[in-house]
Known about the structure:
Layout: H1 29-39, H2 43-50, E1 51-54, E2 58-61, E3 63-65, E4 71-73, E5 76-77, E6 82-83, H3 91-95, H4 103-115
Antiparallel strand pairs: 1-2, 3-4, 5-6
Helix pairs in contact: 1-2
Amino acid sequence: MPDKKSGPKYDCSRCPGYCCSYPRIELLDEDVQRLADHFGIGFKKAERKFAEWYAKDERILRHRKDTVYKTICRFFDREARRCTVYEARPTVCRSYPNGNTCGYYTFLKFERKHQDDPDFIPSA
């Protein structure tokens, strides 16, 4: 865990789930297995239920319609704007944003300050 000086400079709880709206959230075999274990189902059933194939070589999470973004991860709570499978989330979600800053959060903070609206969300 990074110390406070080098730790994250963003607050996911203040974001409406931008990274969860990415259309291609990759699912590795270990991610499918983690979700299967989380829901107490087999690998194949989890794959059919939670994934789809992009082209024929990339397995991605299924999406559903969203009120803020066009679509969002099927495991995203659209009311609370939070992940419902956080402990079982995919590898790509675990490593996002691959550093201690998030470009979207930086943009959101800037816009909220300049719009003088602490809850501002840019519309698509």
